[in-house]
Amino acid sequence: MRILVAVDGSDQSLHAVRAIEHLAHAEKVVMLHALDVPTLAYPMYHTMGGPRTLEGLSLSIEQAMREDGKRLLDRFAPLPLMDAGSVVKKLKKGLPGEVILTTAEKVKADLIVLGSRGLGPVKELLLGSVSHRVLTHASCPTLIVNRPMPSLRHILMAVQGPEDAAAITAFLARRPFRNPIELTVLMALPFDKPLLPAGLAKVDQAIERFVSGARSFVEKIMSDLAALQIRSKERIVVGAPAPAILDEAAAAKPDLILMGSHGRRRLTRLVLGSVSHAVLHRSPCPVLIVR
Fold it and tell me: Which of 26, 56, 153, 188 has its CA 20 to 30 A from that of 270?
């Protein structure tokens, strides 16, 4: 497994680096720090002596940021990575989200790990965030670490359909975690309140058939997990998926939420959001999104 971990000096990025100790042996870990060098404002051109002075100031700022970045990588690199085949430190200039995505493609990363600063949905919509952009566009699984992860034993696996269930099962078949895990396989059935009064036989029968079908689906997933020697239990609830996942996480207190991404694209994502993004905004634990 090739892991790309992005660091920026925040507490969240430190938690992200330390989370790697719960992952299986990595043949290569790329530790990346992006230099988001600011562009000097145009009015400064007139007050600081013209383009030569402006260029010199820009170079000085970039050099200082490079030195800080090197110190950061030197400080973070030894933390939990003694089991990695090799650790490569990279310092690249550019917008952090873009740098992470392009580097992940270049090094053929199997997993991206990064911290989340926890921007709220409105602020994120207006300003964007590194974790949001990476989660939206990454072509490999992405682990978003929003707080310390002292252990990784119990995982809440949220499934919505055959596509994400197959992707998650294939990911687990690669044995990505260091220690044995136990899964709760959660499926939320997004019923709206029926237009007809509750208790009518046809309504009750329709709901019963829906729940029965969901149970058969989850049992098939659990059978596939058992073949991988992974213990699991089922949890089927009625309600909107994102709130149901968050409620279950609050009650069960898993070490990690594992789910697929039904990535909506372009304007649709901005307007409607997605279950994975809604969960990420409010999750009480790290979230691993599998594609």
Answer: 188
**Domain harbouring 31, CATH code:** 3.40.50.620
Q: What is the pTM of this model?
A: 0.84
Number of domains in the chain: 2
Q: Which two tokens stand for residue 233?
A: 């239990």
In this structure, are residues 117 and 16 in contact, taking their beta carbons and an 8 Å threshold?
A: no
In this structure, the strands spanning 142-145 and 287-290 are antiparallel
Please write the tens of the pLDDT for every residue from 22-54.
999 888 999 999 988 776 655 545 555 555 566
Domain final residue pick, 148, 178, 200: 148
| Burial of 162 per CB tally in 10 Å (0-12, 13-18, 19+) | exposed
Rounded CA separation 189/34 (Å):
41
Low-confidence ranges of the chain (pLDDT < 70): 39-55, 79-84, 117-128, 191-204, 262-273
- Rounded distance, CA 172 to CA 151, Å? 18
At position 11, the amino acid (one-letter code) is D
